[in-house]
User: What shape does this take?
Amino acid sequence: MMTPYLKRAWAEVSLPQLRKNIGIIRELNAPGTEIMAVVKADAYGHGYDRVCECLAGECGIKYFAVSNLDEAIAVRELCPDADILILGYTPPEYAHEISGNNIIQGVVSMEYAQALCKNSSEKVRCHIKIDTGMGRIGLRYDTPAECAAEIARICGVEGLSAEGIYTHFAVADSDDPDNVAYTDRQEKFITDTYDELVKLGIKLPHVHFMNSAATCYRNSARSTLSRAGIIIYGLHPDISLDIPEGLEPVMELKAVISQVKTVPAGTCISYGRTFTSEHEMRIATVTIGYADGYSRLLSSKGEILVRGKRCRIVGRVCMDQLMIDVSDVPEAVSGDIVTLIGRDGDEMITADELASVYGTIGYEVVCGISKRVPRIYVE
Ligand SMILES: *Cc1c(COP(=O)(O)O)cnc(C)c1O
Assistant: This one.
């Protein structure tokens, strides 16, 4: 049957599972905490058009976070009424685009706040970022009182509209006591800073610090927003810790067997001759490769589901194709749909599992699925 997309390598994104994950995250949060859906990097590779439409529409999400201005403007077109926060850097000369699109910019210093306001005739909305231990961006001070004093000065910058303060945790995805204590200190610093600001007569609508890991493991009613990213898509902040029941992956990655061959012992498979068959084997060629974002680091390591059975990759993953051992699946034929990420029968391969095979995290696996792979949305 012809499909509106090429049935070669494609990603299926389940909108019902996305909605279900949002429902579970809402349950985790305190009544006063709203979800700020993190949809940077094309919604972690899931495609922001349909993801944002679903989140803003049926899910009723009002807050979104992105990494940059281009993403913010794209989300603005999809969600005319949402609050959209840019977590990362925008060159100050674009301040006019920030305010013109009613975007909220993360502000990391007094100088940056002033530069933004110099470049915009309209008010620039912002949340002020505090570095409490991530060591990435934000105001860094020894005490909450000093930090609050500087925030108060920034709030006074002409043309700036500060609506919140926030920070980012470095190890909220760890249950090691030392790491837990570290995160405790980060949380205490931001909430104390907020309280100091109140003492100075500044009561901002937002203070937020929860990411996915904190939302799962140390949910706090003090955070007015939970900046949930990876758990929206059903993956683990850290593979070694379970996530709440019902949060399941939203994306599956599929491809097709183009050819099946029986080869005798001594046959070399793929570039570099890294694999030679030791006995007769059935080898299937699959229509996906590293240009689709299926990492070459999975060469001779990864497994793929064929008719509900795990089949190992043999030899190197090529740019557009790879080979697998289907000796144990005699029914496998050309045209079979195979599952690289997702469930087939009783077996399931998650992006988190793939990531652990080649030493990365599920985040990188889903973000890395390339543009060439059409995203298909299933209801
Ligand atoms: C990416 C990001 C998040 C979301 O992180 P997850 O681990 O995916 O929940 C939250 N806050 C900031 C500042 C980020 O950069």
